[in-house]
Amino acid sequence: MYNDEIMNKVSRVLTEIRKKVPLVDCITNGVTINDCANILLAFGGSPAMCEAYDEVFDFVKISSALYINLGTLSKEQETADVLASISAKINDVPVVLDPVACGAIPRRFSVINRISEVGRIDVIKGNVGEIKFLAGVDSNVRGVDSLDDGEGVLEACINVANKYKCVVAATGKKDYITDGVKIAIIKNGVEMFTKITGAGCMLGALCGAAAGAYEDKFLSTTAAILSMNLAGEAAYEEAKLPGSFRVKLMDCIYSLTEKRLKEEGKIEWK
């Protein structure tokens, strides 16, 4: 009964996103700006890419959520990230942080800590290597990619959730989500995500939309990751090559239903 009730709540996040059309300000990397904008539209959100230092404080005020992605972190983006997070804290706007390559580039760790100190972080979504690095555990990374086998990832997620007092999601062959107490392990997904650029960035944007539409960030993050994985599975059924898979992924995100989330989600709850 518990699983049925919680899956009803997870699937309801999708309906809330499409009902509320959350405005998500994405300060993201230059490689995936267009991807993040389009997948947010397909999901039911409203994308904005406002990152100008002189505008971002005021724009976050009117946003439903803020998504910060450190993928191509310029000095200008760094200052905008910090200022945007301050505005989010003042104006009670949820923040999703994607700590891209934090294990490979030490400067990014200091930026994350600065955002945590003066702003807010509601969700950290990263790959296994990034999350393990934030937990102070040795991890195997190559640039923005994790080469880690996932051993000890749940413990790392719990550590980071307690450290930053937020929901943490580590993506990989299995996806782990925790608020430090509750745990969800998602077993959906496809390997093809690793063959296209920006799958993680797009997922971060979806987490932003879910956070902007639903109060419970543990459930909203679980719903966003499950949605991406189910869309990926459906896309791969129709498109076995990376280029066509990317196109079908957008279509399948758009076509998602509550029914599919409830019936096809493979989630272990702890």
What does this structure look like?
This protein is of the alpha/beta class and 270 residues long. The protein has a single domain, classed as UDP-N-acetylmuramoyl-L-alanine:D-glutamate ligase, CATH 3.40.1190. 54% of the residues lie in helices and 16% in strands. The strands form 2 sheets. A 9-stranded mixed sheet has the order 2-1-3-4-5-8-9-10-11, sandwiched between helices. Its EC number is 2.7.1.50.
For the structure shown, list the relevant keywords.
two-stranded antiparallel sheet, nine-stranded mixed beta sheet, 270 residues, 11 strands, globular, 54% helix, 16% strand, 11 helices, Hyethyz_kinase, alpha/beta, UDP-N-acetylmuramoyl-L-alanine:D-glutamate ligase, metal-binding
Quick description:
It contains 11 helices and 11 strands. By secondary structure, it is α/β, with parallel strands linked by helices. Strand 1, helix 2 (33-43) and strand 2 (46-48) form a beta-alpha-beta unit.
